[in-house]
Amino acid sequence: MLFYINASFSLHFLPERIPHPYPSSKIEESEHHRFKSHISNRKQFRMSAANPLKKLVKCVILDLDGTLLNTDGIVSDVLRVHLVKYGKKWDGREAKNIVGKTPFEAAAAVVEDYELPCTTSELISEITPMFSTQWCNIKPLAGANRLIKHLGSHGVPMALASNSPRDNIETKISFQNGWKESFSVIIGGDEVKSGKPSPEIFLEAAKRLNIEPSSCLVIEDSLPGVTAGKAAEMEVVAVPSLPKQSHLYTSADEVINSLLDLRPEKWGLPPFQDWIEGTLPLEPWFIGGPVIKGFGRGSKVLGIPTANLSTERYSTLLSEHPAGVYFGWAGLSARGVFKMVMSIGWNPFFNNTEKTIEPWLLHDFNEDFYGEELHIVVVGYIRPEANFPSLESLVTKIHEDRKIAEKALDLPLYSKYKNDPYLKSSL
Ligand code: ADP
Ligand code: RBF
Ligand code: MG
């Protein structure tokens, strides 16, 4: 059943109400005034590099797979198992070709790329039962629950527009608490003539929301989705689900690394209020193992040693956490528990091919501790990974991260994890 927008929805963030009721800082408050004076000259406004405000919107249209749900992992798992039957090996390379496609287009791409001796329809009927057993295992992506709850609690209308068939969408979201009720409109790829990259699905969502397309913000992980959103003349935030792809998303109005980095106030929506002293509290997560050799450049090149952990046993955990700078507590066998700040990801400055975890323990040790058991609890997030114009600016930024982490870890909210038994279990 569809829920249509109730006219009494509290659209108190509408452009008519400028100055904006949700300034998140003094600077932004003045940005809103600037916006007001430039409202008739959007181009000029948007070319102002210092101005973080994009364009006011009234609602948010979300993609599902790869944007809110971590479906890519399930797709890879199913194809990995199934292709063995054809004597083929799924190597993940094709992931790029299927993200954002309709199921039929995605299956057709796999049949073609792997030269499978079956038709697209046959492949679909073979793998559909395999997917059905997996729906309940799909996890929300980082920040998805937070975003839905936030927009919902502020009365921001939300639509779900996915190339997946409507029935599949309903099944997938039925496993996620509170999601179905949060969307005023849900549209599947089978409810329009052509799926993304055609703008049709987004235009239909806007129509059903009763909001003009130019006041809609689309959040999308795939290129076809971004193309569709722009073709619908909507504002589009891209959250690429595959690494090292952001340079391809030139048509998006903004590219972010994960939903954790979305700043709703840039679009005239209520800002998140959960950031504390430059940090975002997370549901804590745990990882540990012996300290292994890394790239050998932490101390040498940066003067910042990072005690690398093997990611072998943690590929799932690692895929669940977006690249970025995090912090928490580190327990080191026979040495104690220390504050910790770390990067997860591909270190754009060095353009690594592997996603690594690099914890910097905020303590002076007189020696190396390779092979010792290190247990860490990650309690908060600071920022996305970034590239830097010079080594010096990277090092400066990492020292800023250290200061933020050091200070935040004294807050009761974070300091309580210092005594977590997991940290001491390695002692
Ligand atoms: P690698 O590339 O092998 O990780 P690094 O130059 O990053 O080399 O140095 C990391 C090593 O330095 C750690 O594995 C650990 O043995 C040691 N080390 C000394 N002090 C620290 C610290 N404060 N934080 C992390 N590692 C440290
Ligand atoms: N590398 C990057 O390329 N970009 C970053 O934004 C970045 N941030 C970091 C933040 C912290 C707190 C730490 C400890 C490291 C960070 N690095 C970053 C990783 C650095 O490149 C890495 O430690 C070296 O590559 C050593 O292997
Ligand atoms: Mg290291």
From TrEMBL:
<dbReference type="GO" id="GO:0009231">
    <property type="term" value="P:riboflavin biosynthetic process"/>
</dbReference>
<dbReference type="Pfam" id="PF01687">
    <property type="entry name" value="Flavokinase"/>
</dbReference>
<dbReference type="InterPro" id="IPR023214">
    <property type="entry name" value="HAD_sf"/>
</dbReference>
<keyword id="KW-0288">FMN</keyword>
<dbReference type="GO" id="GO:0009398">
    <property type="term" value="P:FMN biosynthetic process"/>
</dbReference>
<keyword id="KW-0808">Transferase</keyword>
<dbReference type="InterPro" id="IPR023198">
    <property type="entry name" value="PGP-like_dom2"/>
</dbReference>
<dbReference type="InterPro" id="IPR036412">
    <property type="entry name" value="HAD-like_sf"/>
</dbReference>
<comment type="pathway">
    <text>Cofactor biosynthesis; FMN biosynthesis; FMN from riboflavin (ATP route): step 1/1.</text>
</comment>
<dbReference type="InterPro" id="IPR023468">
    <property type="entry name" value="Riboflavin_kinase"/>
</dbReference>
<keyword id="KW-0285">Flavoprotein</keyword>
<dbReference type="InterPro" id="IPR006439">
    <property type="entry name" value="HAD-SF_hydro_IA"/>
</dbReference>
<protein>
    <recommendedName>
        <fullName>riboflavin kinase</fullName>
        <ecNumber>2.7.1.26</ecNumber>
    </recommendedName>
</protein>
<dbReference type="GO" id="GO:0008531">
    <property type="term" value="F:riboflavin kinase activity"/>
</dbReference>
<keyword id="KW-0547">Nucleotide-binding</keyword>
<keyword id="KW-0067">ATP-binding</keyword>
<dbReference type="Pfam" id="PF13419">
    <property type="entry name" value="HAD_2"/>
</dbReference>
<keyword id="KW-0418">Kinase</keyword>
<dbReference type="InterPro" id="IPR023465">
    <property type="entry name" value="Riboflavin_kinase_dom_sf"/>
</dbReference>
<feature type="domain" description="Riboflavin kinase">
    <location>
        <begin position="280"/>
        <end position="410"/>
    </location>
</feature>
<dbReference type="InterPro" id="IPR041492">
    <property type="entry name" value="HAD_2"/>
</dbReference>
<dbReference type="GO" id="GO:0005524">
    <property type="term" value="F:ATP binding"/>
</dbReference>
<dbReference type="InterPro" id="IPR015865">
    <property type="entry name" value="Riboflavin_kinase_bac/euk"/>
</dbReference>
